[in-house]
Amino acid sequence: MTAAVHPDAVHPDAVHPDDAAAAVARAHRDEWARLVGTLTRRFGDLDVAEEAAAEAFAAAVARWPADGVPRNPAAWLTTTAQRRALDRLRRESKRDARHQEARMLHDDTPPEPLGAVDDDRLRLIFTCCHPALAMPSRVALTLRLVGGLTVPEIASALLAQEAAVGQRITRAKTKIKAARIPYRVPSAEDLPARVTGVLAVLYLVFNEGYLASGSGTDPVRQDLTAEAIRLARLLHDLLPDDGEVTGLLALMLLTEARREARVAGGELVTLDEQDRTGWDADLIAEGHRLVRERLVAAAAGTPPGRYQVLAAINAVHTSARDVRETDWSQVVALYDQLAVVDPSPVVALNRAIAVAELDGPDVGLALVEPLAAALDDYHAYHATRADLLRRCGRDAEARDAYDRAVALTGNTAEAAALRRRRDAAR
After folding, report:
1. DSSP letters of 123-136?
2. Compositional bias of type Basic and acidic residues: which residue ranges (predicted)?
């Protein structure tokens, strides 16, 4: 008997296994969050949604090479996932499972509007970032369910242990179920108070794409940066007058504009060595326009927040046609401003880098050394220290610092660049 072929599939002879695998990967990148969001809206349970979505993608991995890639992968995955979710309900033998199944299969009533923006992924973000959850749990859960990151990737992004991240995700889902946290975009009056946690999550998703971790991962993951920018644009449409939303979008655009120039020959290319003709002029122009909007607001008496200052720093960098034209005094002044709203050791580290460009590597190194206790497990601290030691002529110490940075970084292209600089310090 010939096996039935999914009606949306192409003929299997037309699909090479590599093409099918690429189609699954593309669908996972494009549809994971939307699928989890759709299932959450329909079934009201994050565990059911996540498990059913994962099973649907597993089915795609198994079936698409043989049956063909569906003409509408999203519809195929949604149908498959919904069937898997219903199968789970049957297995759990809930008392009202048959009634619930019948309603889900035959209820043609249009869903009630759940918020100001008709996007399941945005609803999912606000659910994961509900204030009833601890901030670390909000971040981890959203990175998993919306960003589609694995637990090891999340652990790297958060500088946390994998076991701890897994526990956060489990506890967060349990809390959502027990507290009956609604799956919706908050009302207009509640949005400003809720958006801070969402911005933190989107920034971490973007950063994981900007400097991806994992030995088998592309050094720059455009899927993650593009998704973070897409959701940041949605938030900007929703809250056009929120300075931090505008600032984060500008920061992402100005950073993304340099993506094509950031990796060459398998190595990460530092800002001072990048070919600036390869930067995306359209993204830079858009980012600069957003920064100027916030400068006008600041002049009117609205003090800038963290993301607005970071965007302004990136605007200074992307305004220079050559690294030698960078206005380092302005960069230092902006980091001074940032330290007021975000007095973290990472900000102090980045300020020291700018000071070193302005006043010399020995001055910068004197600012970096006291940060050792706070940043000893942070690869960028050791990479910065190594570069400054090398510039000061302390090559042996620089090589040791480069080795420590290589051991800590999870990005393959960055590790390659660090090894090259280490080998040059002889």
Report:
1. HHHHHHT-TTS-HH
2. 92-109
DSSP code string of 291-354 = HHHHHHHHHTT----HHHHHHHHHHHHHH-SSGGG--HHHHHHHHHHHHHH---HHHHHHHHHH
Residues 406/415, Cβ–Cβ less than 8 Å: yes
CATH of domain 12-97: 1.10.1740
Where along the chain do the CATH 1.25.40.10 domains lie? 327-426
> What's the predicted TM-score (pTM) here?
0.72
Q: Could you tell me where in the chain the CATH 1.10.1740 domains are found?
A: 12-97
242: left (phi over 0), alpha (psi -120 to 50) or beta: beta
Alpha helices (H) along 44-190: 46-67, 73-92, 97-106, 120-128, 135-145, 151-158, 162-179
Residue appearing with tokens 């920034």: 203
Q: Per-block average pLDDT, block size 10, for the chain (426 residues)?
A: 46 62 87 89 87 93 91 93 88 56 42 48 86 86 83 76 93 90 81 84 84 65 83 85 94 95 87 93 97 84 90 96 94 96 95 96 97 94 96 95 92 89 85
